[in-house]
Structures are given as C-alpha cells and as structure tokens.
Design brief:
- The protein is mainly α and 347 residues long.
- It is built from 15 helices and 8 strands.
- The protein has helices at residues 8-18, 26-41, 68-79, 104-117, 125-128, 133-139, 151-168, 174-178, 184-194, 213-225, 248-255, 262-269, 279-304, 316-329, 331-334, and strands at residues 22-24, 95-97, 100-102, 201-204, 207-210, 258-260, 273-274, 341-342.
- The strands form 4 sheets. The chain has a two-stranded antiparallel ribbon with strand order 1-6.
- Helix 3 (68-79) packs antiparallel against helix 10.
Length: 347
C-alpha cells in the first residue's frame, strides 16, 4: 500500500463525505440490508456457496479442493479479473465449457479451466511469465465473434505477475500468503507493493485514495475457497471492503442505496467512456465501498438482535458476493440500472 494512500475503507468514507455527484442513501441501505439479512438468517447464502457444489450459475467453475493448486488458480484468475462488459447484449465474449455457455467473469474462469483440461500449465507462474499475446489469445479464444477485451493489458499483467513470483517468492503466490502471518492487511500491502497491476489508486480532493478492487477480491477468493481455514485463515478478514467495480453499483442503485446526480446520469446515458481516476468514477466506487459498509453494519445489528441468528457471520465480502450474484440473477431488472462504462485493468 502506498504510504500516502488512504486505505480502502477510509477512502470510501472520505469520498462519500465529499462526493458531488453520488450520494449514499440510508433508506436504500436499510432496504438492501433487510433482503440480505433474511437470506443469511435462513442460511440461504454463505461462504460455502463460493465453491458452487451442484451449481450451474458459474460458481461450479471455482476450485473445489483446498490446496496450493487452488491458490495458483485464484491468483491467475484475479490477475485477469477486469473489464468483461459487452458493448451490446447481442455482442458478447462467450466460452462454451462442458455443455454450458458462459459470459462475463465466468467466461474467463471457463477459458482457464478449458486450458487446464487441454494440458496447458496456465496457472504456473513460470509458464505465464513468458506468455505471448498470441498464446493468450488462443487460451482465451471465444466461442462467439467477440474477443476478450484488453488482451495486451492482460498479457502485461501475467508477465509481470509471473516474473515477480519467480524472482521474489520462489514461483508461487502461496509464499506471499505464508509471509503475512494470517493478516489480510499484510497480504494486501504485499500485493499492491509488489504487483503494479493491483495498485488501484486515484487522486481525489488532493488525497491519494486506494480502492484495490482486485487485490481485495484476491484475498477474499482465497478466504472463500478455503472457508477461512489453512491458506484462507485471516484474523482480520473483516477489514476487507467490498470490491468496487461497475456491477455492484447497479445493485446498490436498484435498492436505492446509491443515488446519482442528473448530470452523472446524463453522462452515463450518453455512453460516456470514463477513465480511471475521473472524479465521478472515483465517487461511484468510493460511495459503493461506504454504502456496503453501512449495509454490513445494519445487518450485523439485525443478526445480533435475533437469538436464532447470532452465530451467522457477515462481512463486506459476503455482502458484495450476494449483491453480485443478485445482479446476475435479476439481470432483467438490473440491466435497466445505469452503469458507468470504462476499460481499465483495475476492474
């Protein structure tokens, strides 16, 4: 973490307090909290769902075995975990795998699993440190006429990540985890200090704010895969915030937890292509972090007041995962919510 950067949660609070075009709305926070609380209380949603046993919504593509190979898979995927949105509904990057067609983030997971089944050591840092654009284009080949966006940027990420792991961490992200003594914050700092593609920061009101979407989701995915055990055991996992992207804000708008100004709505409806660090883009992401924190706190109060649910865990990771899955499940409704268009390696 840059020494001068505000950490993600503090960044979210600072941005929300100073935002001009995005507002966090308490009534919408409560509405979202009520829905998520009911699902958690009924045990309909939990960290165990990450592995997707028996699922057909994409979670089935995640690793099932809690071992070092799972860590390698997660690090590779999160190094490439950005910019999957399509220009139009009828023009999407798609990957067909085991009889099912995947789009968005899950298309990346399907392509990685397809490569592994073809005997390609795609999750080996020694392999992808020297990967060419031509090789990655083949591994991520589309089953539609739309290719994966930002291919050269993905190659750059992989080459850097592979070289850093080889030169500093004996060729495995597992060794990064081992260096951090069960601290999610130490691991977050190690990741953003050593892997520049994860260093998701911006200037806002003369302060450097850290969002760290991919670095935090990397830690959260390891925690989820290992169900808080082994390599996924972090004593400060609750310090990880939500993962500020272009999809969770849609769900927050749907609940009314976020509100955009008319000028911002006009920009979005006119298909303005935002750039990383643009003021409104930072406000959308920062206010999303703070809104999810408030939702988490509201759910925590509700769980504590319910004798039957006092042992049910909640954190920003689970809230984010719920909202992300809900956005896909209610796609017909959510697609009517505005989303900001941006092509960036950060999300």
């Amino acid at each position: 973490m840059s020494t001068e950067a505000l950490p993600p949660l503090e960044s979210g609070k600072f941005i929300a307090e100073n935002s001009q075009d995005v507002k966090v709305v308490q009534a919408g926070v409560k509405k979202a909290a009520d829905v998520i609380f009911e699902s958690l209380r009924k045990r309909e949603f939990s960290v165990e769902l990450w592995k997707g046993e028996g699922a057909t919504d994409g979670h089935e593509l995640n690793p099932k075995v809690m071992d070092e190979k799972a860590v390698d898979w997660i690090f590779l995927v999160d190094t490439l975990n950005f910019s999957f949105w399509s220009e139009s509904e009828d023009k999407k990057y798609k990957v067909r795998h085991k009889g099912q067609t995947y789009t968005g983030y899950w298309s990346l997971c399907a392509a990685v699993n397809r490569a592994m089944e073809e005997g390609i050591p795609i999750t080996n840092p020694g392999y992808y440190a020297g990967m060419t654009e031509k090789e990655l284009a083949y591994l991520l080949r589309s089953d539609s006429d739309v290719d994966m966006p930002l291919l050269q940027e993905r190659v750059n990420n992989l080459q850097e990540a592979g070289k850093v792991l080889k030169e500093k961490f004996d060729g495995s992200f597992v060794n990064c985890i081992k260096k951090c003594g069960g601290s999610a914050q130490k691991l977050l700092s190690l990741v953003v200090s050593n892997f520049s593609s994860y260093r998701d920061e911006a200037m806002y009101k003369d302060k450097t704010v850290a969002i760290y979407k991919r670095a935090q989701i990397l830690i959260a995915d390891i925690w989820s895969c290992f169900e808080g055990q082994g390599y996924g055991s972090f004593d400060d996992i609750s310090s990880i915030t939500m993962f500020a992207d272009y999809r969770i804000p849609q769900a927050l708008l749907y609940f009314g937890a976020l509100e955009y100004s008319q000028p911002l709505l006009d920009k979005i409806s006119n298909n303005h292509m935002f750039t990383s660090g643009e003021r409104e883009e930072v406000e959308i992401r920062g206010c999303s972090i703070w809104a999810v924190k408030l939702i988490e706190e509201e759910i925590s109060r509700m769980l504590a007041a319910d004798p039957a649910a006092k042992d049910v865990p909640v954190n920003a990771i689970l809230v984010d995962n719920y909202l992300w899955d809900l956005r896909r499940a209610r796609r017909t409704d959510m697609d009517n919510m505005p989303f900001h268009r941006i092509r960036t390696i950060y999300y």
